[in-house]
Amino acid sequence: IAPMYTWAGFYIGANLGYGWGDGSGTLTSGGVTGPLSGSGDGILGGAQIGYNWQSGPWVLGVETDFQGTGISGGFSAPANGVVGTERTPWFGTIRGRVGYAVNTWLFYVTGGGVYAQNKISGTAPAGAFSASNVGWSYTVGAGVEAFVAPRWSVKAEYLYMGTPDSAPVPPGAVVTGSTNSSLVRVGLNYHF
Predict the structure, then answer these.
(1) pLDDT at 2 over 50
(2) 8-state DSSP, 165
(3) Rounded to an integer, what is the distance from CA 165 to the centroid of its chain?
(4) Is 48 exposed, middle or buried (0-12, 13-18, 19+ CB in 10 A)?
(5) CA–CA separation, 186 vs 157, rounded Å?
(6) Which terminus of the chain has fewer Cβ atoms in its 10 Å neighbourhood, N or C?
(7) What SS3 state is found at 78?
(8) CA nearest to 21, candidates 59, 68, 75, 64
(9) What are the backbone angles phi and psi of residue 76, rounded to the nearest 5°?
């Protein structure tokens, strides 16, 4: 008898991926305002848990995940004499999913919130500096998932993340600007 596949119910899994991003804006310090830019990338991995409801081919779900990352990069504001590095040690998302099932395949779009820890360190005319904080932003994306066994599925997805509501800055500086971050990842889920 052929196994029955359903997307409804709880699932848990793990994932591995790659993230990248860049940003630009202005930095004001010591009465000087100049351009600020930076970029970074790195690998990421973590776990996800979620729940789906299915009605015919339509699948609605909620999912949360938590990722550890090696994402890092550099930034600079030459007019202000500021040079530094930024790291994202971890982040997580809380998202909704809307999908359409075709046989053992699920095609979906997803969106929600993302929270991340960002750390910076570097040098400025006043000396060395470091700072850290956790900021929130939005994330949207799309993916595809497919059953490879009655309770096991594999997935691949892309997420875009917008500018966070707050970010660490050098002491005494005011920063304005925006960032664009993306990730691609593959995952394995077990369905209960």
Answers:
(1) no
(2) S
(3) 14
(4) buried
(5) 7
(6) N
(7) helix
(8) 75
(9) -155, 150
